[in-house]
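Go through the following before class.
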Amino acid sequence: MNKDRLMQILVSPVVSEKSSIAADQNRQFVFRVLKDASKPEIRRAVELMFEVEVERVRVVNAKGKQKRFGAVMGRRADWKKAYIKLKPGHDIDFGGGA
């Protein structure tokens, strides 16, 4: 697998109430990923970027919402998110807090 491809797999972390509860209770982190990313690619991308060990990857294909753009009905793009469960003793720190 190409290292450049792995660096592009993770688009952004999903910050929501549900994702923060999953992180606190189950050591799960949620990321928005490329639509064509596979579970092995997602696993390798997380391990490469955050230097952690991944226990399990679960993937959800989220459908885009119907939205109104003025008088025209439109639709947001579909997207994919991945729930990453880490092995015990590993953690991802998003804040570079002081």
Notes: The mean pLDDT is 92.
